[in-house]
Amino acid sequence: MDLLKRYLPVFFMLALVVAVQLVTHFTETTFYLTQLTMSAYYSVVVIGLCVLMGYGGQISLGHAGFFAIGGYLAGALTTHNLIPFRDHGLVSFLDKVGLLVASKDLYGGDLLTLEPWAACITAVLTAGIIGLAIGGPVLKLKGHYLAMATLGFGIIIYRIALASAYFGEADGISEVPGFKLLPGIEVSGSFGARVLNYYIAWGVVIVSIVLLLNLIHSRVGRALRSIHGAEEAANAMGVNTARYKLYIFVLSAVFAALAGVFVTHYNGGIGPSEAGVMKSVRYVAIVAVGGMANLWGALIMGLVLNFLSLRGVFGSYDDAVFGIILIVIMLFAPQGILKINPWQQVKSLFTNTRGLSREETTE
Amino acid sequence: MALLEIQNLNRSFGGLHAVNSVSFSVEQGMIKAVIGPNGAGKTTLFNLIAGNLAANSGNIYFNNARINGKKPYQIAAQGLSRTYQNIKLFHGMTALENVMVGRHIRSKAGFMAGMLNLPWTWPEERKIREKAMDYLDLLGVADCADTEISNLSFGQQRGVEFARALATEPTLLLLDEPAAGLNIYETAEIGRLISKIRDSGITVLLVEHDMSLVMDISDEIVVLSFGEKIAEDLPHNIQQNEEVIRVYLGDEG
């Protein structure tokens, strides 16, 4: 019964995903699918961050950094030619166990690169390990201090992406090959694979949200939420709060990195703007609009806002829009816009009680 | 050895000696009260025992194991549970979920098992829910099980916090001013409840300002003043102890 209630929206979403695809097919607007696919991947970052922020109560202004670690590593490992290092022990070992793929580059030269699966696993593991390494010390901080520390991490990743030749400096990485998940199922931006990729992306979203829904309704999920509610009391109830905060931080880093891997293969490249601080702010803004501790809200807002942004609706004010959204949400609807009560809002504009009720809700 | 043994415990904050060479023990199966004027170091003492504060020196033994320097969650896992003076419940969760967190150390489903919703976790999850419901029932707050905690009255919140502390099935329960903010009827109710908890085999150590409650239910009383233990005796002896009377009422003239 509870399970049915938990998964019912998932089935509804599945139906909606199919319906949207059919509508675009019959109205010949399949070009929308490209942005819907990318929005889906960005939503994976958002729901991962939602569990960290809304349920675990820990903020991160560095999640674009994890996204970039995933994307950049997957991109670099599958594009950089290993032929010059062919005789090196490690490379020949990888070749022998079949983790390398040989192909031709644009000009017909020989190209030897890491197999996308191996690159994906390397990228995601790296993000997880980095998450573990910085999460350990950083999660001892609270509130603004944690925000600043994660912001610092994001800036470091951004500068590394921008400055290192291996990651293509300001140009980023391009000509990233497709990612064959299974025979016949390839993540790539090729025109013919648009519908397939739309379904792959939403498949990833559905798997992610089912995992996270399970998590927040489990014993561990309750422990996480209790840390958000009252950390000291959670500890006194036997919850190893430091370890749980670290776990959830790493988990959300892994989700971000995975989304980065998929987006990079889908777009055929990645640039430093993906690692930028404004991207991190955007993810945080979307989680806030969705209502913090509301996975579905975060998913819906992640989809809608990313879609509008990718369609260019916000024009060159893109980043400004997300800044404004963050301010407005914090002022008027800290519970997210899906829980908004317009009458209450109007009333509070004319009375003096908002400051008070605001304090109560954040307590 | 007694269930809880405190030896020469010290803790200062800057120049303030909040707990000064305090020693006492709590025997299995008794209700022991710690009383003293405001600022006597009662809450500091509790925080030292529960692991929220580190002692400067001295020893705390619980269940024959030294627990100084242990983290609160480790001490909780050894069978010590507590409530707070200013109720600390988990906001954003229902009453039932709050008490279910109390079952944390009595269950074991991990991260992966939770994410994959593995079938072997289902019976455990059902048991957590049933047990939590039982404790809400015991405290008479079962009808607010599905209410978010901040929508409950103060008395109900106190009940939920008690239920949460009991749900860990502790051997020792620390109660920090359980009657604070309650009226005389509710206080009498809490008194009966604490006696009932003791009768079920749980040892209780409490800090309380309400003297009638303390005298009613305690088996032994420790009196603190300015961080030092000035008396430790049976309730009716404490009532006649001149030092205690002086501390509470002040010197004559």
Please give a handful of descriptors for the protein shown.
heterodimer; A: 363 residues; mainly alpha; ABC transporter involved in vitamin B12 uptake, BtuC; two-stranded antiparallel sheet; two-stranded antiparallel ribbon; 15 helices; 68% helix; 6% strand; B: 253 residues; alpha/beta; Rossmann fold; 2 domains; 6-stranded mixed β-sheet; 4-stranded antiparallel β-sheet; 10 helices; globular
In words, what does this structure look like?
The complex is a heterodimer of chains A (363) and B (253). Chain A has 363 residues and is mostly helical. Chain A has a single domain (2-332), classed as ABC transporter involved in vitamin B12 uptake, BtuC, CATH 1.10.3470. Chain A is 68% helix and 6% strand. In chain A, strands 1-2 form a two-stranded antiparallel sheet. A two-stranded antiparallel sheet of chain A has the order 3-6. A two-stranded antiparallel ribbon of chain A has the order 4-5. Chain A is globular. In chain A, 45% of the residues are buried. Chain B is of the alpha/beta class and 253 residues long. Chain B folds into 2 domains: 1-79 and 171-253, Rossmann fold (3-Layer(aba) Sandwich); 91-169, no CATH class. Chain B has 10 helices and 10 strands. In chain B, strand 4 (57-62) and strand 5 (65-66) form a beta hairpin. The interface between A and B is large, with 30 and 41 residues.
Name the poorly predicted regions of chain A.
Answer: 353-363
CATH class of the largest domain in chain B: Alpha Beta
Strand content of chain B: 15-25%
Largest sheet of chain B: 6 strands, mixed
User: Total number of β-strand segments of chain B?
Assistant: 10
Whole-number total of structural domains of chain A? 1
Strand order of the largest sheet of chain A: 1-2
The helix-and-strand class of chain B reads alpha/beta
Tell me the helix content of chain A.
Answer: 55-70%
State the end-to-end CA separation of chain B.
44 Å
From the alpha carbons, calculate the radius of gyration of chain B and give it in angstroms: 19 Å
Q: Tally the helices of chain B.
A: 10
Query: Mind telling me the C-alpha Rg of chain A?
Result: 21 Å
Write the CATH fold name of the largest domain in chain B.
Rossmann fold
- Please count the beta strands of chain A (DSSP E, at least 2 residues each): 6
CATH architecture of chain A: Orthogonal Bundle
- Identify the most extensive interface between protein chains: A-B, 30 and 41 residues
Count helical runs of chain A. 15
